[in-house]
Amino acid sequence: MTQSIVSHRGSDAVPATVLGQGPARIPTGGKIRAGTKTLSRTAAENPQARAIYEQGVAAGQSFDQIEQALVTALPRIKTPLVPKNVPWFTVRGQDFSNPEIAQQILRAFGEDRGDGHRLYRFPVVFPSDHWQVVMPHELAAWGASEKRYWSEYSPDGRVRHCKTHAPVPFDDSGKRVIRVFGGRKTVARDANGGICDPEACPEYQQRQCNLSGRFLFFIPGIRSISAFELHTRSFYAMNAAIQKFETIGFLRGGRISGFLDSQRTPFYLSKKLVEVAHIDEQGRPARVPQWIIELEAPVDVTALLRDRDDDEAALVQAQLATQILSGPTVLAAEGDRVAAPGEPQDSAAPTSAHAGPRPQARDGRPSLEDLLSRALACGIDRQRYTAYANLRWARLEDQPAGAGAGLG
Asked: What does pTM read for this prediction?
């Protein structure tokens, strides 16, 4: 299975080993497909091809396995299978390291909408807070058995390069291949100076190089230490997902990993029928209906905003608890001495000559200055408490003295 790079939490350096020094990787143990494959028109006219296809589908084989069986049995059919856009996701046992997981997913989240028991919508949680990690993507051109060219960005993210595998090295005699440690090396492609420029790329113009991406996630309730992946080639699906990731990250302080709120709300992946615009072979704009992957975040946005307020409240309450538990006398600003817990209030009389009496409470409610004085007694400066109160309730500085009702 393929792997994806993820960032470490914390700043500890990764120790160097003989296998290299690099970030941690999350292995994937299964693949959910966005669509399905059916027999091409030529293959559908062949009775043997139809029999092989139906047997493979009934046995739960992957489409790669079915296609390989068709190519072996009918080598004259160059393209036996073609992709088909459908409103459900395809989950097959042979696409998982443990085939039983496919059945677990279908039993837990599958439903029958008239086309059999299918997977139309399912919950997911992402393992990283960086959308580039949970949705890696690239421009790639594939050959018969391997990836020929692919795009990579420079470390500063400014230049997109076109990469390829380095030639296999030979020894001085030119007859013996040199063993390469750590796998084949990669180099910049000679064409276009190693720059990925789709408009000047013959492979891209001939539709041999295409955008390819995948979502990496865990499914709540499905026990697996390995993540699952869902591939897509839809620019619209990936672009819409990026917008959702960035919005949720903004509301959650940069976090998109894990559940979205205290109610354990996950993301959901489903499919939506939309009209996709494209340019036809004659250069004219056209629109065609397609089922594309949709990332859902069914969460109450106001709850996410309230969670951020509660974080601020926790900071203030933690400081107050620390002052109460520690018990020492706290010196307030302007020379005022504030009594520690258990100390008589008389000893907290003002010691500076210019310190006047506190404003009296109105109707039993604390005044604004009284609130700020109490915050100061707990070691919280005026600006910090005012910023917290403005965020939690209303602007204190816009209220008249004595308007602090409900804040104490």
From this structure: 0.68
